[in-house]
Amino acid sequence: MNVTSSDNIFYNIFFQLAFMGARMKERDKKRLEQFRENLIRLREERQLSQRGLSYICDVTHSKISRLESNPDSNLSLTTLFELARGLGVHPKELIDYKFDF
């Protein structure tokens, strides 16, 4: 198999993207931890399991589980909106905490 320079570029970009979570800034980890705490609190207040929440919004059970338990997991804006819709809250309630700018 011949490896071209474009293959090397592809693999280099792939590995950079694959390990971006390892380079997450400490402040971003703290922000995501606060998001996780809000998500769990709001879900439990509504007496919903992770699977129950996944049934009423367009987010898989495994994604909800990762968001709640994995400190390196991140989310998209559309996932934020879907979780808020499933919880019956405004999206700002999931990210309503102090930001250090």
Instruction: Give the % helix.
Output: 55-70%
Tally the beta strands.
0
Topology as a string of helices (H) and strands (E)? HHHHH
- Computed over alpha carbons, the radius of gyration is 17 Å
Which characteristics define this entry?
0% strand; globular; 101 residues; 5 helices; mainly alpha
Ordered list of secondary-structure elements with their pairings:
Layout lengths: L4 H14 L7 H20 L4 H7 L4 H9 L7 H11 L14
Helix pairs in contact: 3-5
Summed up, what is this model?
It contains 5 helices and no strands. It has helices spanning 5-18, 26-45, 50-56, 61-69, 77-87. The mean pLDDT is 82.
Characterize the structure shown:
The protein has helices spanning 5-18, 26-45, 50-56, 61-69, 77-87. The model has no long low-confidence stretch (mean pLDDT 82). It is built from 5 helices and no strands. The longest helix is centred in the middle third of the chain and has 20 residues, at 26-45. Helix 3 (50-56) packs across helix 5.
